[in-house]
TrEMBL record:
CDD domains given in the database record: crotonase-like (cd06558)
Keyword Zinc recorded: no
Family: Belongs to the enoyl-CoA hydratase/isomerase family.
Entry GO terms, CC: mitochondrion; peroxisome
The protein's name: Enoyl-CoA hydratase
Entry keyword annotation includes Lipid metabolism: yes
Lineage: Eukaryota, Fungi, Dikarya, Ascomycota, Pezizomycotina
GO MF term list: delta(3,5)-delta(2,4)-dienoyl-CoA isomerase activity
């Protein structure tokens, strides 16, 4: 019997298929908007899944029919956000805010640093933090009803927990489209998100998105975990490196990982036309 998954207040964890974990943002009555405790819970969830050998691929979606996440819970932030705190010395206030921002950044970065591939299943409202989370994932799928928005300029700030750093990377550069949606905070729909390459597939509804995501995750989870985690690592290592630097990095990585029994097992299964199985990593 598989070990029980830990329980969290604002995230629901399940295992819908072997080696596949499903994380649901679980605050549907508030459109899955984030407030204080949720940030650190999200980091704890993905830190746990990153090192769980029984997990090979992760799905993240929003509970309820209306939203993946509507972003920041502005009402809650207006009451408790450190931005509102008063300090006599501006430098000390700035230092406190810097630590606060870095802490929130680390919570979102837990998705991108997760050793397992993470697939975002987006529907309904996908505002603000939804883009931060989505760009930290490896694959993004969405429902036809999804409405996206880099919302932060509408609440008086530059997005500071991931979007402005990751969206240009995801889109292949600092394009006119990236600057337009970030500067204007205009909505864009699923068709536009697919056309520009922000998502890889658009499905008719949320149920179809979850079904498609699970199918992709199950396929990935059936592969060698050595190969999958290595592929994610090497692809992510291309950021900020030249081709030559990344080739060198890949050679060093595979000089260790090619010694895995998974290589022989995968090749042997291919020759015998059977499905291979792999040990946990």
């Amino acid at each position: 019997m598989a070990p029980a998954l830990p329980e969290f207040k604002f995230f629901h964890l399940s295992m819908p298929a072997e080696y596949v974990a499903h994380v649901e943002i679980n605050r549907p009555d508030k459109l899955n908007a984030f407030h204080g405790p949720m940030w650190h819970e999200m980091r704890a969830v993905f830190d746990y899944l990153s090192f769980d050998p029984g997990v090979r691929c992760v799905l993240i979606s929003g509970a309820g029919p209306r939203a993946f996440t509507a972003g920041l819970d502005v009402k809650s932030a207006a009451i408790s956000d450190p931005i509102q705190a008063q300090a006599a010395d501006p430098s000390r206030k700035a230092n406190s805010l810097r630590h606060y921002i870095l802490e929130l950044q680390s919570c979102v970065s837990a998705l991108s640093s997760c050793q397992k591939p993470v697939i975002a299943l987006m529907h309904g409202y996908a505002y603000g933090l939804a883009i931060d989370i989505g760009t930290a994932c490896d694959i993004r799928l969405c429902a036809k009803c999804t409405r996206f928005c880099v919302k932060e300029v509408d609440i008086g700030l530059a997005a500071d927990v991931g979007t402005l750093s990751r969206l240009p990377k995801v889109m292949g550069g600092l394009t006119s489209w990236v600057k337009e949606v970030c500067l204007s905070a205009r909505e864009f729909d699923a068709e536009e998100a697919y056309r520009v390459g922000f998502v890889s597939k658009v499905l008719p509804n949320k149920e179809d998105v979850v079904r498609e995501g699970l199918e992709i995750a199950t396929t990935i989870a059936g592969k060698s975990p050595v190969a999958v985690q290595g592929t994610k690592n090497v692809l992510d290592a291309t950021k900020g490196r030249t081709v030559e630097d990344n080739l060198s990095y890949t050679a060093v990585w595979n000089s260790a990982m090619l010694q895995s029994s998974d290589v022989e097992r995968a090749m042997g299964a291919g020759l015998k036309k059977r499905t291979p199985t792999f040990e946990k990593l």
